[in-house]
Amino acid sequence: YAYDHGVAPLHSRAEVYVLVEDENDNVPLADRPAYSSHVQENCAVHTSVVRVSASDADQTSAQGISFNITAGNVAHHFAIDHTGLIYTTTNEIDREVQEEYVLEVTLTDSGTPALSSTVQVVIVVDDENDNSPQFDQTFYHIMIPEVQSKESSFIIQNEVDASETDLEFEALFVGEAWHSLETDNLTGYPVFRLLAVDSDRDSNGRVLYQVKSSHGRFSIHPDSGVVYAQRPVLANNDFDLLVRASDQGSPQRRSTVRVSVHVLGPEGDGRPSTLRAPSPHFTRVTELDPVGYLVAVVQPPVLDGTIIWFSIVAGDARDEFIVGVDSGSVQLARQLDCETQAFYNLTISLSDSH
């Protein structure tokens, strides 16, 4: 607006338009502070996982935001396209190898100079029942002490006098069914324990045990894998049985192992004598230690030619530990939970057959 200083001032008006040119002074930003998603293990190639969305306050730069995975993708199991969609590049994503991926995605605009920012993407691998329970041996040869009926609560029926080792192995189990004990009605006498490990999670990794033995001589605790003799097992006899471990996934997966049991007879008066035990042993475990983890090894006194028997007699109410009946190695039978129980005081019995 302009005017003069005359007696009758004259004036005029002009409109001025100012165009502010954009400068690339804003970084592109993801629409969320972080992203999380799940993917099924062993899924197909090009399975969509999650889309990263971004915006840029600058006008021209926002039209060309590029996406790149710049960290956390060492095995190159994932890729990202120009729209921000993360997808799988392999069908070999294995939860048992890696349960979680933390990717860093870099967002870069098209300005000059280019500006960028990063956002974290967490991808959790969901479990698939792709592993069978595994025993630590393909065949077990176990020696156990003699157990007579007067020393235990056996159910005696259909006693067989013939030696079972004279028969063909497969013929031992003709007509026999897989079975296990009722957990609220345990019968018999515990003689040894087997352990199978399934690396899957939750119901896919929960192992239940069944046994098949001639004439139902042995049965097994379905959860702990402790084998119980349902009849007397007398010295110098040999028995064969099959133990099956099944997970609870769908479809269900199983493993079967053969067990050969030899019964050693007591010497002298037939009563086992208790040995002088080692001094108390202290050790630490964590919640992350897997099933089968070696917790400790109990070292017995050195007695030439004497077989030492080990058993957990107290402190393991939930059957969370296992001890080698003739080795003294204490292992985890279940993963532990510190919030459930933070301290264990196991009492392990050592005895010989003299």
UniProtKB/TrEMBL annotation:
Name under which the protein is recorded: Cadherin domain-containing protein
SMART domains given in the database record: CA
Location(s), subcellular: Membrane
InterPro entries: Cadherin-like_dom (IPR002126), Cadherin-like_sf (IPR015919), Cadherin_CS (IPR020894)
Keyword Calcium attributed: yes
Keyword field: Calcium, Cell adhesion, Disulfide bond, EGF-like domain, Glycoprotein, Membrane, Repeat, Signal, Transmembrane, Transmembrane helix
GO MF annotation terms: calcium ion binding
A Pfam family it matches: Cadherin
Membrane topology: Single-pass membrane protein
Record-annotated Cadherin domain positions: 31-135, 180-282, 277-353
CDD domains attached to this UniProt entry: Cadherin_repeat
GO CC field: plasma membrane
Domain of life: Eukaryota
Organism of this sequence: Graphocephala atropunctata
BP GO annotations: homophilic cell adhesion via plasma membrane adhesion molecules
